[in-house]
Amino acid sequence: MILDLFAGPGGWSTALHVLGARDVGLEWDQWACKTRAAAGQLTIRTDVAMYPTWPWVGRVRGLIASPPCQAWSMAGKRLGLRDQPLVHQAVSDLAAGRDTREKLLTSCRDERSLLAAEPMRYLYALHQAGEPEWFLAEEVPDVLPLWRQYAAILRTWGFSAWAGILNAADFGVPQTRRRAILIASRVRNAEPPPPTHARVAEPESLFGPGRARWVSMAQALGWGADDRPVPTVCAGGGPGGGPEPFPSGSRKTLTDARDRGAWVPRPGAVVLQSRREGSGWAERHGTRENRPATAPAPTFTAEAHRWSWSLRSNSQANATTRRLDEPAGTLFFGNRSNECVWVGEPAVVGQHEEQPAPESIRITAQEAGVLQTFPAAYPWAGNKSQMFSQVGNAVPPLLAGHLLAPHLEAHLDPDDFTLAA
């Protein structure tokens, strides 16, 4: 079997399903477990740090681990960095068969820090039976020194191992999410998968096929792209709700949408025509504060102004803001139920018209999930805060698929990771 520690809402599991495999996930968060159950994924609700290792010995082909990142993330207090020497000590002790976690935990400033050492407890137990065949781990970039320690230990056990930083956008994820990755294998050379995308498209050469341009948020969400005709599957031809502008399953293009008064592209931005309705607009369509997390974005129609839309990653002054024709920044969600908002700026204003104020519209959990490469219909469970927390902590399934495919000896077709469908 494939054992998935800290399985979360199913990023690795979704990738495994696409590749024709399944895992058993260990997960503590009840809402992530409910999401996994609704998605048909095998799950044991448990504390990974308390669960015994002996039931798995002799049964595990592949081991996956994505420990909680809150102690290390730049979005938090980052007490994991101060606890890092203790975590390194725990890994070293566990690799030698000594369990000093309880003693070390009393000195940790964040009790979650030691969770990054848990995979070594499982690896040590499995190693006694010559398992696993392969091991994959993912965490925020600051955990890279720890993954390098793991790699050094695993090499002494007969593994080939690689640790480094990968950018999810280089693998077709519409998000410039950088993560520390550890790849280890007993049966093949451990190396990162070849990137399929780049910031700027690369032509085919004598050295092999070129790379496509990074996938934009507009492409992933099916909202149309920049000035290229693409299938339009979202309501109103843009970030809208209500009925689709074209029959379900139709393959109309940006040109068709423009003819119907939906999207109006211009070089360098994605814009749409929007109706301003005074103070009643917010009540009818929902604002940043009252729009349900599961609702589609409000419908925009063609009457007065054209709007250029961007995604702002949080409410801080230095928040990352990306245009709709770019990948999103790293999605993370803190104490607020949702810190990501679509910001609309008027792109074209009539000669005698007053400059409208920018609009701010809350991103939905479904939109955020698609930007993580989960299917649009993925069954997120819980309230707004619980859903957004799951999305932000998940491994992008498309990135996971690139990492998993060589070890499963499976062919990965990115088209199998349906986004806006």
UniProtKB/TrEMBL annotation:
Residues 274-295 are annotated as: Disordered. PANTHER family: CYTOSINE-SPECIFIC METHYLTRANSFERASE (PTHR10629), DNA (CYTOSINE-5)-METHYLTRANSFERASE 1 (PTHR10629:SF52). Gene3D superfamilies: DNA Methylase, subunit A, domain 2 (3.90.120.10), Vaccinia Virus protein VP39 (3.40.50.150). SUPFAM superfamilies: S-adenosyl-L-methionine-dependent methyltransferases. PROSITE patterns: SAM_MT_C5. InterPro entries: C5-Methyltransferase, C5_MeTfrase, SAM-dependent_MTases_sf. Keywords: Methyltransferase, Restriction system, S-adenosyl-L-methionine, Transferase. The active site is at C69. GO terms for molecular function: DNA (cytosine-5-)-methyltransferase activity. This is DNA (cytosine-5-)-methyltransferase. Its EC number is 2.1.1.37. Residues 274-291 have a biased composition (Basic and acidic residues). Belongs to the class I-like SAM-binding methyltransferase superfamily. C5-methyltransferase family. GO terms for biological process: methylation. It comes from the Bacteria.
